[in-house]
Design goal:
Layout (H helix, E strand, L loop, with lengths): L8 H12 L3 H14 L4 E7 L5 E6 L6 H6 L27 H8 L1 E7 L6 E7 L2 E2 L3 E3 L5 E7 L6 H5 L4 H18 L4 E6 L2 E6 L4 H9 L6 E8 L4 E8 L11 E5 L3 E2 L2 H12 L10 E6 L5 E2 L10 E2 L2 H19 L41 H19 L3 H9 L2 E6 L3 E6 L2 E6 H18 L5 E11 L2 H16 L3 E5 L3 E8 L5 H9 L9 H14 L6 H12 L14 E5 H7 L5
Parallel strand pairs: 1-8, 12-14
Antiparallel strand pairs: 1-2, 2-7, 3-4, 3-7, 4-5, 4-6, 8-9, 10-11, 11-14, 12-13, 15-16, 17-18, 18-19, 19-23, 20-22, 21-22
Helix pairs in contact: 1-4, 2-6, 6-7, 6-13, 8-9, 12-15, 12-16, 13-14, 14-15
The structure holds adenosine-5'-triphosphate (ATP) and magnesium ion.
Length: 584
């Protein structure tokens, strides 16, 4: 008896659909692209229950005739390419004729359309791949309206895999947003359970960027450039130093009018921002790249997320210089911190690994590693200090630190203290983070967070993603001492803040950047809030530095910041003697 057989067509369809339709966001992507390809100047998307119950899309594009409806929802039914030759120069967003077929086999779909120049409109249902005959329906204007109900009704395993409404909605937003940036001259509306998440009218590109992401327009820079040998053109919309977020969800890349992902290319732009932004926060930008169509392969992934570009490395370098130029010339000099050489303490080196990885970091444009001899010589000194901490000699170490004399502040970041033959260098932000964290953590644990009520509330404009996160975060915020109310769906008013945090705004944003906030423990959240809050904290001087050290010594764990980085390093005078080639 044979055991090999060809699968029934509905099973094949469901398997194929899985490659295109993973979740509501992928349906939205396909339907929005179809509307845009149809020339719609207005696209509306309405979700119910994160798109799981319904995705309703409405456009004013060229519509679909009855004849075309009859072939729609079949595999490889497309109007966009006709031969393999066209594959090399695809200019529309869709081209495979896969999308509707896939959606139609895993959901209950209703489509209504009125083609341009026709007085008639038609209505058709598709369920599990089976179509009804188109029947006449009334539609006031040309365009197409599609309702996708009960996604994955026939593939329960996939349905179970879907996340919470908020999480699915956020993924839809992240798919939807790029199109609003790509087509600033068109209108877009996105709602969830009747609530507006995004509503944008035609505007110039930079203005659209600010409007769609709810950012201050005055912090948005633009620029463009060309790489003539490659026939590549480049356009940038960039947030300046004032726009810093904890997630990379405000970073967009478009290649030949298509939203794409390319870690390599985004990496170059992010690297450039590193020159002016602290670790742990990310900038906002959109890069629009145009290269000859034959240099791009858009068919790498079935869902068209990824592209491959020839000359990617060279393009990256070009992007970097262009971005740097825009930021450094338009962004204002105030952003160029650390133009003088700074001695960078071993940021990533845990105590017990010595300092082999230490390096000296120069200002923008030039980086170099620590001169060889220092790197090698330094190891035992730090190792000794590490050993003191590790081997439970904390008490002795605390005593020594309390006996130190304050010398001064270096590079607006480090406090210098001396004791005997030792110079202690204290990272004031790491120290501050430790102090705040322990205080805040204890207050949260005992449900006694000290709050300050604000006379005028602090108003925070939310990005659409933060807006979605807010519903899940609000309760945690309250627990942490932030009383908040939502204003007009776009901004949050903060009425009270915890006293311990110096920059409450940054702390709130850090909490809003956590998708899983409902499941994250309080210590982690408190740690994050403190980190965000001191990252740009004030510079302390003199007496304050001494006071800080004393307070720190009262902490349960004063030797590392809550994220595990060292708070101190100790330099012995013998170390300096060797640098000066003093033999003794
Ligand atoms: N909103 C719409 N308005 C007008 N025509 C549409 C619309 N949506 C789909 N169509 C027509 O239906 C065809 C099939 O759409 P479908 O999304 O399945 O394939 P595609 O867009 O050609 O390719 P891809 O699978 O890459 O998206 C399209 O080629 C287009 O002619
Ligand atoms: Mg399509």
């Amino acid at each position: 008896m044979s055991i090999v057989h060809v699968l029934p067509s509905d099973v094949i369809a469901r398997i194929a659909a899985g490659e295109v339709v993973e979740r509501p966001a992928s349906v939205v992507k396909e339907l929005v692209e179809n509307s845009l390809d149809a020339g719609a100047t207005r696209v509306e998307v309405h979700l119910k229950e994160g798109g799981k119950a319904q995705i309703h899309i409405k456009d004013n594009g060229k519509g679909i005739s009855r004849e075309d409806l009859l072939v729609l929802f079949q595999r490889h039914a497309t109007s966009k390419i006709t031969s393999a030759l066209d594959l090399d120069k695809v200019l529309s967003l869709g081209f495979r004729g896969e999308a509707l077929y896939s959606v139609g086999s895993v959901a209950e779909v209703n489509i209504k359309s009125r083609a341009a120049g026709s007085a008639d409109a038609w209505d058709m249902d598709v369920k599990g791949g089976r179509k009804s005959d188109p029947s006449p329906v009334a539609m006031a204007a040309q365009g197409t309206e599609i309702r996708v109900n009960e996604l994955f009704f026939n593939t329960p395993a996939r349905k179970k895999f879907l996340k919470s409404d908020a999480s699915e909605t956020e993924q839809v937003l992240n798919i939807f947003l790029p199109y609003t940036l790509l087509y600033p001259e068109r209108s877009f509306l996105l709602t969830h359970n009747g609530r507006t998440l995004l509503d944008v009218a035609p505007a110039p590109a930079a203005e659209r960027f600010a409007r769609a992401l709810n950012l201050e327009a005055k912090h948005i820079l633009t620029g463009e450039g060309a790489m003539s040998a490659e026939d590549a053109r480049l356009r940038f919309i960039m947030g300046d130093i004032n726009i810093q977020r904890h997630r990379r969800d405000l970073q967009f890349l478009f290649v030949n009018g298509r939203p794409v992902q390319s870690r390599n290319i985004l990496f170059h732009v992010n690297e450039m921002y590193r020159l002016i932004m602290p670790d742990g926060v990310h900038p906002a930008f959109a890069v629009f790249l145009d290269v000859p169509p034959e240099d791009v392969d858009v068919n790498v992934h079935p869902a068209k997320r990824e592209v491959r570009i020839r000359q990617e490395a060279r393009l990256g370098g070009f992007l970097r210089t262009q971005a740097e130029q825009i930021l450094m010339t338009q962004g204002g000099a105030k952003v160029v911190k650390g133009a003088e050489p700074l001695f960078a303490l071993p940021e990533q080196v845990p105590f017990n690994e010595g300092i082999a990885g230490a390096k000296i970091v120069f200002g923008p444009g030039q980086r170099s590693s620590l001169p060889e001899p220092v790197a090698r010589e330094a190891a035992p000194l730090f190792a000794q200090f590490a050993a003191d901490v590790a081997q439970d000699r904390q008490g002795a170490l605390k005593d020594r630190l309390l006996r130190t004399r304050f010398i001064g502040t270096f590079a607006c970041k480090y406090h210098l203290f001396e004791e005997g033959e030792s110079l202690f260098v204290i990272d004031q932000h790491a120290a501050q983070e430790r102090i705040l964290f322990e205080k805040f953590r204890d207050q949260i644990a005992s449900d006694s967070v000290e709050v300050q009520h604000l006379l005028t509330p602090l108003i925070l404009k939310l990005t659409p993603q933060e807006r979605v996160a807010f519903d899940e975060v609000q309760e945690k915020l309250r627990l942490f001492g932030f009383e908040t109310t939502l204003l007009d769906g776009q901004a949050v008013a903060v009425h009270s803040v915890p006293v311990v945090l110096p920059s409450p705004e940054l702390a709130v944003r850090a909490l809003l950047a956590d998708e899983q906030v409902a499941h994250t423990d309080h210590d982690t959240l408190a740690r994050r809030a403190c980190r965000a809050s001191v990252m740009t904290g004030d510079v302390m001087q003199g007496q304050e530095a001494v006071y800080q050290l004393k307070t720190l010594m009262g902490c349960a764990d004063p030797f590392t910041c809550p994220h595990g980085r060292p708070v101190f390093v100790e330099l012995r005078s013998s170390f300096l003697d060797r640098q000066f080639l003093r033999t003794g």
